[in-house]
## 1
Amino acid sequence: MRLALAVGLLVAVWLLDSLQRPAPLPMAQAEFPRGAQGVQAAQLKHQGGGKIPMPADAQAAHASNLLAMPAGHTAAVTAFWFAGDRESAPNVQIAASQFDRDTQRWLPARYVVERQAMAAQLGFGLRRLGNPVAWLDAGGRMHLFVVATGWGGWAAGRILHLVQRGADNRLDQLTLEPVGVLPLSWLWNTSFLVRNAPLPLKDGGMVLPVHFELGIKYPVALRFDREGTFMGMERMSQRNYMLQAALLPQTVTQWTAVMRDQRPNGHITAVQTADGGAHWQDLPDLALTNPDAAIAGLALAPGNSVLAHNSSPHSRALLDLSTSADGLHWAHLADLAHGWDSDEYSYPALTWADGALWVSYTDHRRSIAWQRFLPATGGAP
Amino acid sequence: MSMELPMLSALLNTATPALPDAWLVRMYLSLGWAVVLAAMGLGLLARLSFKARCALVGVLFVWALVPGPLSPTYWLGLAFQAPSLASVLLGGWLVWRGLFSRAGAAKPKVPAPVWWWLMLPAVLLGYALLLDTLALLPWQLVSWGFSGALLLALMAWTLMPWLLGGHQDVAEVPLWIAPGALLLFAATRLPSGNLWDALMDPLLWLLLQGVLLGHLRRGYRNRLAYRT
């Protein structure tokens, strides 16, 4: 009798579980930016830049992220960053601005994620906000992933997934609501952070690089389907000092991920996958030095990638743009910002929109600077 | 054969997680902590009169349901997210026992099969999950929490003490808590969509270690007393 009941319970559990599971996704295949094929990174020339407007009361800004908007939208690019009195200040919120296609100017910035409001919707407290990363799903809905800390500093961070409410994502209409905290760790979901842009996939989904950073640092790739539903995770390295991966596809299924190195006198580190992120192998360090600083990478086309990175081994005063055919060997393309030792130009972000490469970065933790690079042969924005 | 392989493949797949709905998570967060807090309150003040115990449970329950920073849920969620389903079921049973059972304030007993089939494996599992979080294991244990195969395997495992002819005495911790948590997880995906979070949270893991250490210490003392 007991055995029959136990078997019945097992069948019930199996049925309940199977009915709720989504269908498995096919192997991830990278999507390269539209309009970037045929553009040689070496031909990109600086064509404008400046500062993105800040919210009126913000004294500090950091960790920007750029999102290319679809054709037909009023904006070419949306920029997100965190702003407030200082990094980790209680009043830090997520700010955003859009580059208006008509006026060719950035719109006045506004806050789009407020800590207390998100906490009220979630039902539990959020101590600090940071590192926004945006993505458009197959339906054009905007998703935003931000670090929201529990008790402790950044190492107590969790990744909060937000999604656009309503149909309009023009800056003045943009409203975001929480989907939830991504379930990445048994230890109260603690210490997973997001920083770099996702890799769009041909199926309309994406792969989001995140990292663990409580004591040790290791990268993890998260898969999302075309509607932005979480579909699993894969650890990217066996090493424990690598974080903030930038995903650079060489082909649709063969990708390199380059990363910030936490070690002193470190170099940019790398891993690769040949099966769309299902399995990863560690690679030798790259020749590029890395002063424990964030990097940003973007593959424009197969064999054609760009990387924004701090090139000095001991400071964040030099921010450069480099280009590579294989994601491993890089050549200097342009100086993005060069200062003295105490200067800081850091946390770059890249995107491709309206036939141009867009770069943003933190300028002395006080503002977000931006630059645009166009192919030398033309290509109107 | 052609049917069996896809079914096995689907069961082993860790890339088809089903997550709970946001509204359900929000509701569970408050209700879960309300039950756990009520159980803790009763545990601390078990010798109160029946009316006082009812009032205590009511106050703690309502307090946990209050929205915003005045609620303990707001701060417990900030630090610990949501309690596991097993913690909530255990808390619910303790509240029921503390209010309505004749066993009353007596310490719950742990039947023998539970030690070997549930408590000890759970404590060891917690260490494995901790090591996995720190990437000190060669495999990704946390990902297995998204697979259907693990759910079935754990369901079968947690039913074993009952199948092997468990008790039930009302003074004993019931055998249905772990399988009940798994059944609820299969139905609701709470609290996070990952099976490990449903089965055991780190606070429950710490509690189990305390109970296990207490049991071992008592056993050691009893042996010493027997020898002398």
## 2
Amino acid sequence: MSQVTYDFAGKVAIVTGAGGGIGRASALGFARAGASVAVADVNADGAEETVALAEAAGGRAIAVVTDVSSSDAVRAMVDRTIGEFGRIDYAHNNAGVAGEQNDVGDVPEAEWDRVLGVMLRGVFLCMKYEIPHMLAEGGSVVNTASGAGLVAYPGQSPYVSSKHGVIGLTKTAALEYGARGVRVNAVCPGTVLTPMVETVIEEMDLEPALIALHPIGRIGTADEVANAVLWLCSDDASFVLGHALSVDGGYVVP
Amino acid sequence: MTARFAGRTTLVTGAGGGIGGACARLLAREGAAVACADIDRAAAGRTADAITAAGGAATAVACDVTDPDSCRDAVAHAVAGGAALDLLVNVAGVGSLRPTGEVTLDEWNRTLAVNLTGTFLMCQQALPLLVESGGSIVNVASVAGVRAVPYNAAYCASKGGVIMLTKSLAVEFGRRGVRANCVCPSSVATDFLASFEFTDAIDRSLFDRASSVIEGPMDPSVVAAAIAYLASDDAAMITGAALMLDGGATS
């Protein structure tokens, strides 16, 4: 939970991949700040759980089952948000998928399309349909990139390519819309303790090795990434545009 | 307002100037005790007086960041009475606009001495105390540390150095609980910016490539807000970052 209580009362946020992990943390952050939240996820149960948590925290939220790689689904998500809440002020485009481990020569083409479909085409489609609704009164978009958007991870070419692409897309949209009152930025988490990651770490006993890679000496939490998303959406970040903010304990410090 | 810095002891260099003053005032409004350091003791005093007049806690101290003894004394001043040091903000900086052929060796050395070596010296003096407290450092670098600005070679070199100094400290001291970050503003509405002279020898068209898409210059309070964010617990997982406050200039 953020230390600062942001005042997003009367505002509306869309968060994709909000059925768990980072997206759930930011959806709850927006809700606690007073925003109405469209909780989008491909997983209906996860989205409903997040909505219940937001409502329990006194917030207003709806679940919107969305596959962000589908144009029809993203348009429906935006239409539903406008239909329920009448506006869009903030968008955290966060939906992602884990990639299989393969060298480039062994990556199935379908795997490439699947990963880039969700994480690059998905972010593009979300911005394409969200930003027009922000132009009248201004808004803020934060895309979830990754340390993998800044450096490479062998065996993860689709994931790394999509996250590098998200940063390029973020910067381009930032320059296009900055003068029109819409700020677009990205966050670059390092390893974050989400339920999915926790399982892998425990099974493979990766925790000591992962901690060793983080100069700060620990692994981050979803809330810590959400705190950065909220700050980037706040007026305190009024001159931050096209930035890829690392929230990684120094993991990829160049 | 949230009191993110209640009970924290902070030291801000360049606190007599635009960004340093705005930063000191914001930290104090959110509960910090602020030692306002500046080479101009009177200017630091004005910032400290404004803070105390508003009900905050501040003191002023003269500090020449190019002098190791002066840096040591400023740190000692901040923790006089036994306080822990929780935050160091290095704002002190100099620069001017001049064709590189006309830059004197003294001017080059002075720019590096204040902006880069001064930041190093302050960090070196403060780090033992920051390790004890689990504190943090925020340095004011510049967009000029990432993207070249013409007629500003010494300033660009110094600010690029500040960014790598910050990252190096972040990696070296992360395990010991100290975070180090920097902010990289583009044009800020301060006396420093106003002091830049656009003589006939300067080709203004060379500046167009580094302009922001948001109307500037920004108010110093915008920089102060970013410094406070990086120093706050909400940024507990952020270290080694160079946060661009540039309205898209480096995109």
## 3
Amino acid sequence: MKTTVSRRTVLAGIGAAGAAAALAPRVALADKAAADEYLGKLTGGTAAQDGKVKLKLPQIAENGNTVQFTVTVDSPMTPENYVKTIHIVAEGNPAPGVASFHFTPTGKPEVTMRMRLSKTQDVRAVAMLSDGSVWQGSQEVKVTIGGCGG
Amino acid sequence: MPTPRVKIPGTAAKGEVFEIKATIDHDMESGQRKNKEGKPIPRKIINKFVVTYAGNEVFSADWHGAISANPYISFFLTATESGPIELKWMDDDGSVYTAGGAITVS
């Protein structure tokens, strides 16, 4: 049996795929923009450099309700040079803020907690140091079942 | 009443970095969920966590709706002197839950 595919069908298909492709990055950008705006308020607009911050997360989270993360920063934690604050931001959640940790020159800059992730997304950690510099690290997590309830 | 559970080492050498682990029973209702009638369930979370060591605030955290239920946290302090360590969790409804212990530094 001969299958006929009309020119019109093919073009409509391409059009739909194109529209979807054009739309998808725009949604992702909106999430990232909201996260950037949120972080900008917290950091006072200082641009974050890549490095010093490590975020340990599972690459694949089957249950988005409890995703364990560990954040560490390369810092001696002396009174002259320590991490003041670490902000955790989930770019794809309904609200980007997850947590902010405030340190004093003691112990080491390492915190472990568990968070909710609504879908597959990048999670970012931004560290503000006592010398005024701002550093960041990020990690993508693929989420199988979203953790925002419904 | 949420029950906090805290793990603090009883002793440490001066200058040693030690870990504190803590959890508390709490739904951490994010405000994003809806009930069976489709109405939003109001937010009720622990929004702040504060740690004092020998009377000084040494660590604190702001928590948002994305923190999982029954929040668990692990963090580190340096043993500087013997004294009490107090952990406080502040609820959206104004409640404050406290737990702690003491460390002997030699």
## 4
Amino acid sequence: MMGKLRFIASQGWYDLRYDWRMSGILVASIAAILAPLLLLLGLKTGIVTQMRQNLLADPHNLEIIIYQNAHLTRDWFEAMRKQEAVAFIIPKTRTINATMDIVARRRVLPAVELLPTGPGDPLLESVRIPRHWSEVLISFSMAQSLDVQVGDKLRGILKRRVHGQQQSVELVLQVLGVVPEQALSRDALFAVVDLLTMAEDYRDGYAVPEFNVHAGISDHNEPRIYANARIYARDLESVASLAGQLRAQNLEVRTHAREIENMQIIDGTLTLIFAAVTLLSSLGGAMVFGGSLWVNIERKKQQLALLRLLGCRRGDVMLIPVLQSCVIAGAAFILSVGLYAMVAYFFNVHLPKSPWWPEAAICRLQPCDMVIVVLLTLMVVLLSSLAAGYRGSRVDPSVCLRAFQ
Amino acid sequence: MSCILELEQVSCRRGEQDRSFDVSIPSFTLASGELAIMSGPSGCGKSTVLEMLGLVLQPHRIGRFIWQSDSDGAVNIARLWERNDDRGLSSIRAREIGFVLQSGGLLPYLTVAENIMISRRISGLPCSGYVNEISEVLNIVPFMARKPHQLSIGERQRVSIARAMAHQPRLVLADEPTSALDPNAADAVFSLMMKLVAVTGCSAIIVTHDQQRMNLGSARIVTATITESGTEFSE
């Protein structure tokens, strides 16, 4: 059985080699379809991946902004934190920013925005997160305008009016790190929630022992209510559902949904275009390849008839064009990948890069895409070769008794 | 001597409806080692007879068609055709028949050596010194590595004879083996073939329209008789 298969395979191989011009044309005709398809698939994957990376690289795209004064309780935060879709959530004391005047090296920055942070803050992946109320992170622009560095001390000044009398307190804050400009481009301080709530308490007239302020209302009876929150979704897909859920709680929220939607629409559109082009060119390819094989069988009728006359069975003769097609498909695939690699290299070197993701390739193919392309090619080629093989197996062996060569 | 072929009332209808005619063999037997020359004018149906004997054309009517196989004993060819048994017919062709075609019929993509060996490979036989012996007799050893298109017609014909005999078949069927050759080459090829048939002891049926070839002492002569309904081949 193996000997027979080897014999048939060798006949197909010798014939392909002898008839190298025709084999070359068949390989080229498949590569002409396959190489642009690979390129299109590579571009689609590259572009969509890059858009997704761009969106992901900017954590603001995962943010859900509540733009109203809300009444959010600790329980509400606990419940939200447990949700799968939530990557990070932290309470804010005010909707319009909590602020503090900052003094450093005799320079004063009035009303600097105070943002709460904590472990897992998606904006602050590369910096140390403050743990104590006296530790802060400052934005890059603030570090520049105050000319301070990590480890420096800042003075934070809070003011309040009690019974018509102006009071103020000065806090010493240590700079734990500088937040890169991509994460936040305006002047701001990141601090633990405690600093914000204590600043709020101070303004509201309470005594704050941590600030060494013992005058004021001493007991805090009401449970704490937060006006707002910083919320980040786990991934791009959960942004919309999370926003929907908050809207259902009568919260007015805003997201970068449009950018995400755009990316998803472009992804969907490109996939559809790619599928349509693939379908059309596969059909065209099957017809061209099947037709060429068919004509080839007509050309080689005498040879096939001779093999039949010498005692090869129908199935054996049918196998010849099928095996030949596999070899042709393999060669065409290798040629196409070579062509693809050259053009993709050109694209990746010469087309503009994303600022977020400079090392990302514009044209790229994943291994599973390759496997799908190989299987599809093989399927198209085998189907068209089966038709030709069937035609070949029906060749009457007596053909070669009547006229040969 | 035992018979290898027994035919009775075997015929095939050829041609279009109005001009159709029967090519028939009323009775024919061939013993092993026997040589038969089949002759008749062009177009009388010689090739049709050869195709029926070579198991590639299904006769329309079969009274009796027995093939005495070395391995399987008497094989009823009529049954194989009835069942459309491609495997059975193919394996008899592969093992027990050698074909010499009008103009060589060699595969262009194989060398001379590979072309000769193909009949052994198809019937699953190993290489054998026998192939060298017949190649020497046919004087084709010098161009074993060439492709058919590098040979003259006479050389191709000699290669074709080598291929027909390389697997030691019981029967060699030759269809006008010398018609494409000039008279001298034709004589040489024909006598080489006769020599090989005699040496190997196989049977042979040679179809020819060349009357001269019929003066072979021991050969049985089968001639075509044209009747109203077609052609009858008989001795």
